[in-house]
Design goal:
This is LOC107387651-like protein. Keywords: Immunoglobulin domain, Signal. It comes from Nothobranchius furzeri (Turquoise killifish). This protein is 30% helix and 29% strand. It is of the alpha+beta class. The strands form three sheets. Strands 2, 4, 5, 8, 9 and 10 form a six-stranded mixed beta sheet that branches. A four-stranded antiparallel beta sheet has the order 1-3-7-6, with no helix packed on it. A hairpin with a 4-residue loop joins strand 6 and strand 7.
């Protein structure tokens, strides 16, 4: 039992040792479109009759796809596969990803490549000014709408006030002659009484 555990530990250490023999430089690239980069993969041991392949993945823990050479991608090997190079030219944004070299069954740690478009400062400033202008225009339109609503409400209130008329107050003694006597007022009701007619209060 102890020998079995020791064997598994030795196998794990051997695998770790082999994995550490593969290195890649640099570990990260951040470049603009149109540029060229080279990724260097090296092994501390010389491998006879070995093969080297390059793979690309979107992220470190995603599926790796083998890279095929073309007019923009070239591979180079030196010193009995001890050193290998991957060259990418005329970079595009879709070239962004993680690149791994693989010698036989041993994987390299990977190189992260981030390709971005160059920023046009004048175009960025223009877009910023246009955006600010739209914000100001929206604010003015909102203020105009609020003002129109308030004016309409005020006009409706004035219209309702003009429709309402104060009732006329008629004096109950309208038509009667009012005379003054020593500073006091009295109504001469006798002017409106018929001769011989008695007042109802008599």
């Amino acid at each position: 039992m102890h020998w079995t555990l020791a064997g598994f530990c030795g196998l794990a250490l051997t695998s770790l040792s082999v994995a550490l023999q593969i290195s890649q430089k640099p570990r990260f690239y951040g470049v603009k479109t149109g540029h060229s980069v080279g990724i260097y993969c090296s092994s501390s041991l010389k491998h006879l009759n070995s093969t080297v392949k390059w793979y690309k993945a979107d992220e470190y823990n995603t599926q790796k796809m083998e890279i095929q050479t073309d007019e923009r991608i070239t591979l180079e090997r030196k010193d009995l596969i001890q050193n290998a190079f991957l060259y990418l030219s005329a970079l595009q944004t879709q070239d962004s990803g993680v690149y791994f070299c693989k010698i036989n069954n041993t994987w390299g740690p990977g190189t992260k490549l981030q390709v971005v478009r160059p920023i046009d400062l004048s175009a960025t400033l223009h877009r910023s000014k246009v955006k600010d202008g739209l914000i100001v225009l929206q604010g003015l339109m909102l203020a105009a709408c609020i003002t129109a609503v308030l004016l309409r409400k005020h006009k409706l209130v004035e219209t309702s006030d003009s429709i309402y008329e104060e009732p006329e107050t008629h004096h109950i003694y309208e038509g009667l002659a009012i005379e003054t006597c020593e500073g006091a007022l009295y109504e001469d009701l006798s002017l409106y009484q018929t001769e011989g007619a008695e007042a109802p209060w008599e």
